[in-house]
Write a structure and sequence with these properties.
- This protein is an alpha/beta fold and 729 residues long.
- 46% of the residues lie in helices and 16% in strands.
- It has a ten-stranded mixed sheet, sandwiched between helices. Strands 5, 10, 13 and 14 form a four-stranded mixed sheet that branches.
- The longest helix has 20 residues.
- The radius of gyration is 26 Å and the shape is globular.
- It starts with a strand and ends with a helix.
- The structure holds NADPH dihydro-nicotinamide-adenine-dinucleotide phosphate, 2-oxoglutaric acid and magnesium ion.
- Pfam families: IDH (PF03971).
Length: 729
């Protein structure tokens, strides 16, 4: 039977769900639309690993491969090791019998436990559900709203020293080799060390005909000298030092790179105390925060702490995530995530925050050069031409290759920190080497896979969007990169399958494509960016944040290859800072527009799947209601005393009920919603007051990763009048 699955996730979107889902369930229920929930929060996924909760993620992953799928996916935490450990601790404190995270497993049992936790680590949800490519764009209503209510993109100061530092050689981009498989095969990855020993890194890797496989490495020695150089440069230029990685989605490689940065910054400290820190299992890969927290347990902890303090005082000035709390850019690998952190910096005139909370220019370090040039291109443009004006600029929507863990975001099980010098070979079943790389100890070697059917689907989606909009579509692909050359060959071949007459379809290297797209934006022109998986991620924060002030208001549809639908809510994440604010002052600034936008096509899909015209009526009414919601400017403000997330849900419910009452396609639904619409309208002031009056005091939600459902519902549904009205439907 058709049903919509609404996901329980983490942090701000989870809080919002406590308020919004009751509205969805009440309205859908009246129209006979089945809505079920599944808990894919990091806490639930941990419990599922130990048989203490349903494995909803595996279930939804299977569902996503069927035409029946209709899933609304809210953003979730992609947990770094420090977050995973905190979630485990919280669950243990709540009485769940789960083991500690084994830092360095040294027996079979610990290895088994570690393997279970590794399934929860990092970006473990999205790749499982994303069985389709991604279509992310600002709906016309949002773009118009941004034009009439423009946010501020601050100018870069005259002579701004902000720039991007990237390796450009000896990195993943420069060392890449790539091959397209002529037939189905089973591959293995073998390191042959300099003394002739063969170490099997991976075997039984099944690949399909037409699949692209890449191999590359980040050279550890080159990374270290690059980092030393950037530290010197930041010191000499007296700018803030900041590193921007994706330790969540690139959950194997990027924590290692992050660890190199921590080690490079605190070079002298690690020189002197590295062995003691390693013996205490305090790893730089988990960030400075974890190390400092663990020092108390060491006999010479105070001495080591003093050495870290001294290094911080004498090194280049670090950028801070939260200067009040002393949290630096190097504290937690998942605090600064490149997709959101770079556009936020650009929107802020190229400035980040220093130790004293003051803003300053920064050297933004993005070690691998595959995509760093995109950010530099945008920075160059705004330095020369001034900030982009949201009131007038065009849009850069995205069609992203994402299905079946495409490209880098599927590389974790094929990423290795190399133990010994030698050669890594990707071998086919016949034992022939398809790809080979010489390696040195410490190099980060990885292989990526890109299947052919997803590429075909992506090209089709690009042509469909170009046709639907009349906008030029640019494939952001770089002839100079081995992987991109294989993709370009496929793009050129699969474009032949479509009618492209009259369409403007181009292929350009990412930095050039970024430059052109921004130039066109300034003229008010739209340009579809058709990208691989990583640039999908980056561009769908970068451009929305510059255009709309946030990526939360995006429509993010994933037409699943098997025919179902995955509807992501916005293009951003789970906004941890918003939770802090709720807990401190009972105010939630989370904007649920992404949820509203996802629900419309989900209801449309349901109407089609269940042959249920009432679902289409709900969808159409919701679509009109979100228009009114935007016109009436009902998204949450940022400050206490204004409509927050809960108030915004009330207004959406009001407009949606009014649209349902007024429509004429379904008289029964109109009659059912008329009294509710009247009650909500009549009590508007009272409900708004009830929702605002609770603000300003701390709120108790009974946890962080594993919330107390009753307490959270009480916090998120504080208006008795609104609750009664909904219950009366
Ligand atoms: N699809 C997914 O599942 C995704 C998950 N993530 C995960 O989210 C977590 C946080 O990532 P982070 O890099 O901080 O990025 P986020 O996008 O979560 O947050 C960055 C900032 O964007 C603003 N923001 C994001 N969403 C909203 C919204 N709906 N309403 C209002 N403002 C919003 C907030 O700004 P302000 O504080 O100024 O209000 C927020 O602090 C990580 O665990 C990450 O892995 C990240 C991206 C996608
Ligand atoms: O899965 C994640 O960790 C983040 C996903 C993300 O940032 C995106 O899809 O835009
Ligand atoms: Mg992203």
């Amino acid at each position: 039977m058709a049903k919509i699955i609404y996901t329980h996730t983490d942090e701000a979107p989870l809080l919002a769900t406590y308020s919004f889902l009751p509205v969805v369930e009440a309205y859908a229920g009246k129209a006979g639309v089945e809505v079920e929930t599944r808990d894919i929060s990091v806490a639930a996924r941990i419990l599922a690993q130990f048989g203490l909760a349903d494995d909803a993620l595996t279930e939804l992953g299977e569902l996503a491969k069927t035409p029946e799928a209709n899933i609304i996916k809210l953003p979730n935490i992609s947990a770094s090791i420090p977050q995973l450990k905190a979630a485990i601790r919280e669950l243990q404190e709540k009485g769940f019998d789960i083991p500690d995270y084994p830092e360095s497993p040294d027996n079979a049992e610990e290895q088994e436990i570690r393997a279970r936790y590794d399934k929860v680590k990092g970006s473990a949800v999205n790749p499982v559900l994303r069985e389709g490519n991604s279509d992310r764009r600002a709906p016309a209503s949002v773009k118009n709203y941004a034009k009439t209510h423009p946010h501020t993109n601050k100018p870069f100061a005259e002579g701004s020293k902000t720039s991007v530092a990237t390796m450009g050689e000896h990195d993943f981009a420069s060392n890449e080799k790539s091959v397209t498989l002529p037939a189905d095969d089973t591959l293995s990855i073998v390191l042959e060390t300099a003394d002739g020993e063969k170490v099997v890194l991976k075997e039984g890797l099944k690949v399909l005909e037409g699949e692209i496989v890449d191999a590359t490495r980040m050279e550890a020695a080159a990374l270290q000298s690059f980092l030393a150089k950037t530290l010197e440069q930041a010191k000499a230029d007296d700018v803030l030092y900041s590193v921007h990685l994706k330790a969540t989605m690139m959950k194997v490689s990027d924590p290692i790179i992050f660890g190199h940065v921590v080690r490079a910054y605190f070079d002298d400290v690690f020189e002197k105390y590295g062995a003691a820190l390693a013996a205490a299992e305090l790893s730089p890969n988990d960030g400075l925060g974890g190390i400092l927290a663990g020092l108390d347990a060491l006999p010479n902890g105070a001495e080591i702490k003093a050495a870290f303090d001294e290094a911080l005082a004498s090194g280049p000035r670090l950028s801070y995530v939260n200067s009040d709390k002393g949290i630096t850019n190097l504290h937690v690998p998942s605090d600064v995530i490149v997709d959101a952190s770079m556009p936020a910096m650009i929107r802020n005139g190229g400035r980040l925050w220093g130790a004293d909370g003051g803003e300053d220019d920064t050297l933004a370090v993005i070690p691998d050069s595959s995509y760093a040039g995109v950010f530099q291109a945008v920075i160059d443009d705004v330095k020369t031409n001034g900030p982009l004006d949201p009131a007038t600029i065009g849009s850069v929507p995205n069609v992203g290759l994402m299905a079946q863990a495409a490209e880098e975001y599927g590389s974790h099980d094929k990423t290795f920190e190399i133990p010994a010098a030698g050669t890594v070979r990707v071998l086919n079943a016949a034992g022939e080497a398809l790809l080979e790389q010489d390696v040195e100890p410490g190099d980060i070697w990885r292989a990526c896979q890109t299947k052919d059917i997803p590429v075909q689907d992506w090209v089709k989606l690009a042509v469909t969007r170009a046709r639907a909009t009349g906008s030029p579509a640019i494939f952001w692909l770089n002839e100079a990169r081995a992987h991109d050359r294989e993709i370009i060959a496929k793009v050129n071949a699969y474009l032949q399958d479509h009618d492209t007459e009259g369409l403007d379809i181009r292929i350009m290297a990412p930095a050039d494509a970024a430059k052109l797209s921004v130039e066109r934006m300034r003229k008010g022109e739209d340009t579809i960016s058709v990208t691989g998986n990583v640039l999908r991620d980056y561009n769908t924060d970068l451009f929305p944040i510059l255009e709309l002030g946030t990526s939360a208001k995006m429509l993010s549809v994933v037409p699943l290859i098997a025919g179902g639908g995955l509807f992501e809510t916005g293009a951003g994440g789970s906004a941890p800072k918003h939770v802090q604010q709720l807990v401190e002052e009972n105010y939630l600034r989370w904007d649920s527009l992404g949820e509203f936008f996802a629900l419309v096509p989900s209801l449309e899909k349901y109407a089609e799947q269940a042959d249920a015209p009432a679902a289409q009526v709900l969808a159409d009414a919701l679509d009109r209601a979100t228009g009114t919601f935007l016109n009436e400017d009902r998204s949450p403000g940022r400050k206490l005393g204004t409509t927050d997330n809960r108030g915004s849900h009330f207004y959406l419910a009001l407009y949606w009920a009014e649209e349902l009452a007024a429509q004429t396609e379904d008289a029964e639904l109109a009659a059912a919603f008329k009294p509710l619409a009247e009650t909500l309208r009549a009590n508007e002031a009272k409900i708004a007051e009830e929702l605002i009056s609770v603000q300003g005091k701390p709120a108790d939600i009974g946890g962080y990763y594993y919330l107390d459902a009753e307490k959270t519902a009480a916090v998120m549904r504080p208006s008795a009048t609104f609750n009664e009205a909904l219950a009366s439907l």
